[in-house]
Specification:
This protein has helices at 3-20, 27-42, 46-87. With 88 residues, it is mainly α. Helix 1 crosses helix 3 (46-87). The longest helix is centred in the C-terminal third of the chain and has 42 residues, at 46-87. The mean pLDDT is 89.
Length: 88
């Protein structure tokens, strides 16, 4: 896939990820996670809090990259299927 198309897909994924943050159906779970995070951090020593934050940031980054990869592969599969249907 060309570079510009890849960038377009990543941009679209980013936009959809931002939209997902505003969907009200996710709000109760988001609030629950926020409360749990505060409780967890309050129970940790400062050095443990730093370690937890680093772990959390890395975990979130990895999950984001996986979802982005799945999204791009799904679009590529869709393009392949449509192009094969168009040929037939």
């Amino acid at each position: 896939m060309t570079h510009w198309r890849n960038n377009s897909l990543i941009h679209r994924f980013d936009k959809l990820a931002d939209e997902a943050d505003t969907i009200t159906v996710f709000q109760p779970m988001t609030e629950q996670l926020n409360v749990l995070e505060v409780e967890l951090l309050q129970s940790l020593q400062p050095d443990q809090q730093t370690l937890f934050r680093e772990w959390q940031d890395s975990t979130i980054a990895l999950e984001y990259m996986k979802k982005e990869w799945i999204y791009i592969k799904g679009v590529q599969d869709g393009i392949t299927i449509l192009s094969q249907l168009h040929i037939e």
